Amino acid sequence: MDILRRVNRRKRRPRPLRRLALLFLLLWVGMGLFEANRPMPEGLAVSQPWRPATDVQLLLDQTWQAGDGERISQQQIFDEALAMINGARRLVVVDMFLFNEFADENSFRPLSAELTQALIAARQQPTAPEVILISDPFNTLYGGMNNPQLQALQQAGVRVVLTPLQQLPASNPLWSGLWNLCCRFVGNSTEGGWLPNPVGDGKVTLRSYLHLANFRANHRKTLITDAGNSWTALVTSANPHDASSRHANQALRFSGPAALDLLQTEQAVGRLGRIDTRHWPQPPTAAPVDDDAELRVLTEDAIRDALLELVNSAADGDRLDMEVFYLSHRPLIEALVAARKRGVMIRALLDPNRDAFGREKNGIPNRQAGWDLYRAGIPVRWCNTHGEQCHRKWIRLDRSDGRSELISGSANFTRRNLDNLNLETDAQLRATRDHPTLAQARSAFDKVWTNADGIEHSLPYAAFADHNVARYGLYRLMEATGLSTF
């Protein structure tokens, strides 16, 4: 009997550590759910009205390897961006994800320094236009290192805003829930780091790594400037990032009301950073468009909706071409497979996800998503990269009735980029098939797909095919949970 009483007393004895652990687990799950379901701030995730496609120009960057091993790069995007800034008289607004001189052995152009010098020169003009740079805190490793370019801009009177990412929904809620309980308020320091810098020389703090694991990002890549009484805009996939300077990228440059629509979308980001944008010009009231060519600006999940609408509207006899750095978004992949079954002719040109700034990757997610397309009978080819990345994010539909549409911008075709998690900007152009911009886009894609002029721009599916079931399962888990960098 004494033994039974002792056993019963032990069972009734309170276990505070277990209760604390259970309470912490409940708080962790609750905080993760709260962060995952945080609404996008006001003014984000918008589809702007259709506008006349005024002065639309397609700009392309491309790198390839010649037969003798020489690597050749043709650059258009930042040449045009620098010219736009040089012509500004009232306002320059730049929103770029990567703005730094982190480099590797494959870098060849100091894009961050060039853009920094152009923005400083704009501020030094007699008219001294207002210059705003919006970027991502990754460029300082979340306060863990100094960024000389950003410091020089601030000293020259440029307003530099690092987007407060904590106001965005969590794309990795499993970590962000814990982060908000344990680490969010500890700050960071550029001194005293003991861990290797993941993007350069020197040491950084553990706090930089803990910030990074949230995977939140302002991934936009836009530029808006005035030219006196007119406005011009650039929506691109390219970053002013030295280590990205050889990447293949695309951009659409345009003017008119659509440029002011883009400026309005940047006002929403500016408000997050407490910029007073009330004096910025507003776009005119939307009116019916009777031009043959029209364009609209899309941000965040409005890009996803436009992509799905485009693919789902494709019919038998239409042709759809896509070139993208990351493809993993399940609803979009399913829509592509369904379109193929309807008789849509589809060609998918994907980055092999092999090269990442001097490091070799494992091919996730494109090789697994490419397998989905391949099994559905969709032709897949891989960009033939040599250290650089096939960093484009665009899709074009040529309809059998003679009309074409193009969606182009910053958004990869992934859950993080399309489902209201990152900040993203794309532009959608629709016009007749022979519109110069659409004809140029078609020609550029065909050149890479067919290896025109004897240059091996792309490789057949077999070159990077990966039918490993375990890696495919890992890709699906990473896409669904946010435990990934794509």
From TrEMBL:
Nuclease is among the record's keywords: no
Superkingdom per UniProt: Bacteria
Catalytic activity line of the entry: a 1,2-diacyl-sn-glycero-3-phosphocholine + H2O = a 1,2-diacyl-sn-glycero-3-phosphate + choline + H(+)
GO biological process, one term: lipid catabolic process
EC number in record: 3.1.4.4
Root EC class: hydrolase
Domain Phospholipase D-like as annotated: residue spans: 308-449
Molecular function per GO: phospholipase D activity; RNA endonuclease activity producing 5'-phosphomonoesters, hydrolytic mechanism
Keywords per UniProt: Hydrolase, Lipid degradation, Lipid metabolism
Keyword Lipid metabolism: yes
InterPro entries on file: PLD-like_dom (IPR025202), PLD_domain (IPR051406)
Record family assignment: Belongs to the phospholipase D family.
UniProt xrefs under PANTHER family: CARDIOLIPIN HYDROLASE, MITOCHONDRIAL CARDIOLIPIN HYDROLASE
Name assigned to this protein: phospholipase D
Lineage: Bacteria, Pseudomonadati, Pseudomonadota, Gammaproteobacteria, Pseudomonadales
